[in-house]
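Batch 3, record 17
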Amino acid sequence: MDLVAMVVASLVLVPLAVFWGGSPVSLVLGLVFALFSPGYSLVAAIFPKRDDLDIVRRLALGFGLSIAVVPLVGVVLNFTPWGIGLYPVLIALLVFILAASAVAWYLRRRLPPEERFEPRFRFSLSGFRGRQHLWDKVLLVLLVVVIIGAIGVLVYVARPPAVATTFTEFYMLGPEGRAADYPDVIVLGEEATVTLGIINHEQEIVDYHIKIVIGEQEVGEVGTITLAHGEEWEQPVSFAPVEVGEAQKVDFQLYKGDTSNASHILDLWVDVVGSQ
Amino acid sequence: MKRASLIKAILLVAIIGLAFFMALYPRLDYPYPLHVDEWMHLGYTNQILNTGHLNFPHPFQGGQWEVEGHPETGYYIWFGTSLLATGSPWLVLARLMPALVLGIIAFVAYAWGRKRGFGLEAAFFATFIHTTIRFLGPAFLVPVTLGLVFFPMCLILLEKMEKDWRPLPLIVISLIALFLTHGTTAVAVGFVLVVYLLFYLTLSKNPIRRMLPSLTCILLIPFSGLVIFIWNRAFVLREIQNIINAGKIPLPAIPVPLPQLGYIMIALAVIGFGFMIARGGWRNYALLVPTVILLFFVQFYRQWFEIGPDILYERGWLYVMLLMAFIAGYGLSQLRRLSLDFFKRWRWGALPVYVALALVVVFALVLRMDGYAKEKYYHVVDVPTYHDFKWMGEELPRDSIVLINPYVAWAYVPISGGQYVYTAKAYPWGVEESREIAAFMATGATDTEYLRERNVNIIYSPFPLKNPDLVEVRDGVYILREGS
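Prediction for the assembled complex:
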């Protein structure tokens, strides 16, 4: 049963990791796959008899030896043409788990049934309903509560704490929406375009507007842009310089609400040339 | 399930839950890694996954030279495999893993100690191992934390080896992996194993044929260390050179961390020492002697020897704390037994014993948490900076080299996910190169040639820059124009 469960879990994990990586199920199965299964299958192959090791030590060695096996598999992969990547790692570990489980299964089969290791869980709900002593029932409930509590702590660990920081992201990309091809030479009378973006992390709805200023002169304005907390805005914005000159500083000034001071300013230096 | 087993199961699960919480505790109010080393290891892991190989362009030195045969490679593979298998973001696993690893340490400690009657106690005190920014610890996701699992695990294998030879290859495999993961811990584990085996060979009453695997194991322990020599010969030779020829290295003082464990655990460890000596037996000596030697080593190493490598001195406290946790567990278990033997002559006599034990456990925990609360950890980045780096990783060219505060640079590489920093240093603005970068940024980064010579194409600056060749694409983020 233990080997079958482990092999099935590993076989399920591989497509899960490839296609639905990051889901809660792949997180749980992936951790089992990387932190437990290689070691446990190795222990099962080396100690097939029931008397070899008790279940607690098997589980403990399963965790510990996985920490030993995984790096060694990775080192071997490093010297293959495939290297260390998603598919090679998943397949190599899967092969290891399957091979060790197959050896364990074969060795257990060679033993008389009473000598084979088989994990046994003796728990029945009917016993719980009927004859059990009250204290035993209380303890069972307590065990369930403690298990839920431990898992709860673990889930809590995985979720980063909500840090009450308020800020706004304000950024500028090139006209194609990439951080490249920013205008540097503009012909007077023609428009240049950049892409501006805002992300609101202010924990409240905020009205933003953007002023485009060259030297002392305002050459454009965008807004009002109303964003809720967590909401994003990104759009191409065009502007046209009003005089010829080298190294003119274009300021993109972001204002929050009705404030008169810009909260963020991004600078772009351009040369403006006359049309020939 | 029998009632006693049920109670043990409840306590064990509760202890594992406690382990999760202890590892989480320093992270309760901070979402990101807590130590420069954690960031560094995340950066290397990320680089291995990006390149697919264990030799890779150095992410913290602008990719200018290759990291070859890193001595903590095993750890990077282990964490990288976990990332690949779960498909989870590194930030989730970086928070989860310390909790899981400490839970595993506690569980393996239980599995080892239960046959000798102090499994729960050993597991409980194993969760007490302290974490500081100086000698690290289980609350950090670092190789030495992973290495701590190997102490109780190898002891389980050794005990099994008293009956047959089959654990021998597992011990060798474990040590080889540990040498590739954290060599210092491998040396410490090897030392504990050798002492254990020597006591077994000399004081146990087993027939000589049972002792052959142990003798072989003693010979194979140093042999397994050869792997790191093959893997990175230069590193090993340099470390040996440090030990032999370096002379005295002035180590900065670090406070003895034992009080942070809480005086109840210390007292129980002393009681445990006493019981072990009084009871005698090779098993007790095999645990006592390496603990005492390691304790003396880390306590007096600085005052007396001060010869490199200092890593033995700094990480040694963790091994001492783990072994002391086992001995404190032994002490508590002996107190429990003696008290029960004494009080059980009265009806309900066990009740006050269990109440007293519960009080001891609760007060030990309270004192331990107090020690934790006093500790300070690094907060390398805040939330806005994290979002800046994430945006830079997503929007800016993948192989960019970023000029940045060399201290914050450690966090930049893993958060951005695929870019290089010009340089990273452990102390903020503390070294010459860092001061030079600070001065360059503070004066507006006007020298474009300075950037060109260093292949830098992005600057993350706390100061406003005044160079027309740079475009400010976000607060503090400047990119160098192509062809400027």
